[in-house]
Design brief:
This protein is α/β, with parallel strands linked by helices. It has helices at residues 3-7, 30-33, 36-50, 64-76, 131-142, 161-164, and strands at residues 14-17, 25-28, 57-61, 79-85, 93-99, 104-110, 119-127, 146-155, 170-175. The protein is 30% helix and 34% strand. The strands form two sheets. It has a seven-stranded mixed β-sheet, with helices on both faces. Strands 1-2 form a two-stranded antiparallel ribbon. The longest helix has 15 residues, at 36-50. The structure holds adenosine monophosphate (AMP). Catalyzes a salvage reaction resulting in the formation of AMP, that is energically less costly than de novo synthesis. One of its GO terms (biological process) is purine ribonucleoside salvage.
């Protein structure tokens, strides 16, 4: 599927102005998820891209990343690793804090989630400023994971998130 064909999936994404706060146009993916053809097309395209890459873990970011990450890990026949907000994972974790527009946020991953040298695919629903994904890349690398690529359903290109991920390969399906 070409980039133009991926962008055709944009018609399934709903814009919600001023959510969760004024000035943000929230990209609502539930309208894509509920459409069996659109959800399948998005997942099949991701599967096709990574099926021969010998990925051993899909690492996905809470919470919308879990939807694509979980389904993709099942299709790829590899393991799934959740990255969660601070305090949610029950066992020992590595944590990383990163800057938000106002304040900071902390994400965690289980210390035994990734073995040194494992090929990891990072998955989230949307790349905005890249702060979240670049923090997770640092976590994965600290654990010795080898990041094959960071994959997103949506990229807000005007926020230049790729610059924060410049040491990694980045793939996105729908761009704005
Ligand atoms: P960032 O760290 O700025 O790249 O933000 C990425 C994270 O915030 C992702 O997990 C997204 O789910 C969420 N996010 C940021 N901006 C939006 C938006 N406009 N619509 C929906 N989700 C967003």
């Amino acid at each position: 599927m070409s980039q133009e064909n991926f962008n055709e999936l944009a018609k399934y994404i709903r814009d919600i102005p001023d959510f969760p706060k004024k000035g943000i146009i929230f990209k609502d993916i539930t309208t894509l998820l509920k459409d069996k053809e659109a959800f399948k097309r998005a997942l099949d395209a991701l599967y096709k891209r990574y099926k021969d890459k010998d990925i051993s873990k899909v690492v996905a970011i809470e919470s919308r990343g879990f939807i694509f990450g979980g389904a993709l890990a099942y299709k790829l026949g590899c393991g799934f690793v959740p990255v969660r907000k601070k305090g949610k994972l029950p066992s020992q974790t590595h944590a990383i804090s990163y800057d938000l527009e106002y304040g900071t946020d902390t994400l965690e991953i289980h210390t035994d989630a990734i073995e040194t040298g494992e090929k990891v695919l990072l998955v989230d629903d949307l790349l905005a400023t890249g702060g979240t994904a670049s923090a997770v890349c640092r976590l994965i690398e600290k654990m010795g994971g080898d990041i094959t690529e960071a994959a997103f359903l949506i990229e807000l290109v005007f926020l230049h998130g790729r610059e924060k991920l410049k040491d990694h390969k980045v793939f996105s399906m729908i761009t704005y």
